[in-house]
Specification:
It is elongated, with a radius of gyration of 20 Å. The longest helix has 14 residues, at 243-256. It starts with a strand and ends with a strand. Helix 2 packs parallel to helix 3, helix 4 (128-137) crosses helix 8 and helix 6 crosses helix 8 (243-256). The chain is of the alpha/beta class. Residues 7-27, 32-42 and 166-174 have low confidence and may be disordered. A five-stranded antiparallel beta sheet has the order 1-11-12-13-14, with no helix packed on it. The protein has a five-stranded parallel beta sheet with strand order 6-5-7-8-9, with helices on both faces. A three-stranded antiparallel beta sheet has the order 15-17-16. 32% of the residues lie in helices and 22% in strands.
Length: 279
Amino acid sequence: MGLQPCRPRMTVAAPGSLQSHDIRAEVPPPRSGDVVRGDTMVAMAPRLLVLEDDVGLRRSLRMVLEDDGYDVIEAADAERALAVVSDHGVDLMLVDLMLGGMDGFSFIQRARPHTEAPIVVVSARDGVQDIVAALEAGADDYVTKPFVVEEVKARLKALLRRPAMGGPGETRARDDVFVLDGQDGPLVFDRGAAALSRGDDEIHLTNTEFRLLSVLVDNAGRVLSRSALLEHVWDQGFFGDERIVDVHVRRLRKKVELQPGSPTILVTVRGLGYRLDTR
């Protein structure tokens, strides 16, 4: 049944193989928005946090990404990275998993409740379990080392183009309040307010989960393939692993289903993809 809106080409080698450069890594002051110079509005560069304990790789990434227009902040450990996220805010993050002290998985889990900034994991750990665990922790994308810098740059640009929850591109000009489950709760998705709730309980959504649910709502009752979801949620031309879709669907099910193991709202159509049904 359809939804009834309610009114209301450079290759980077593995760590240790790159030369170090003498670059100071200072955290820039907090931003309050775009800067006005005379009569001209100057857009500020996207602030990108690079969490990597290999100094050569970290600083090489900084140089390449600064040339691409990013305001790059370096962090050699997760504790410093958490301080940057808390005190200064970032627009994007590149995160290694194998760090001294707190590892990348723990950093993502601790940072995610405080920021919706997209997180791209860059790691030599290429096992399926590692990829799934990082995405389950709250990462948006995963790139394995050694990698091609152009690929990382493309992933970052794709994530940066995605509108934030409730930001430009998500307006209330449309009917944007939907009842997903009218029997238990009810479960209500208010896209204009970027809010999901069941009864009086608000359910937190990450930026990726919000966009995924929005696409599914727009196509309620229709089967969407993994490739279609990659294209619409992660941006056109995205060339990532389709397992990313499966992990985020599983995470979203935990938030919309009363029994995620036996889904009735976000269902799998074997061999084809996923479909959003309403009750």
